[in-house]
Amino acid sequence: MFIMFSVAALCAVLLVASLLGVACRYRKDLWFTSDDVILCFIAPPVILLGTFGALSIGYRLTHGGLAAVPVGG
Fold first, then answer.
1. What pTM was computed for the model?
2. Mean per-residue pLDDT for 46-70?
């Protein structure tokens, strides 16, 4: 489940970034394509999701790989 959340967070970052890129390219008149909205409302959650996803995937890779199953008593 941990890997699923990590991959979902990274996919959400890619989706938001690509949709925002398309919106900024073709519709500069929309309210969420202004610099203030991008910096104040869109960038912080994207940064947090990307950081969480990258760190958690990196942690799993360095601690046994993606297929590692914890052995509990």
1. 0.78
2. 85
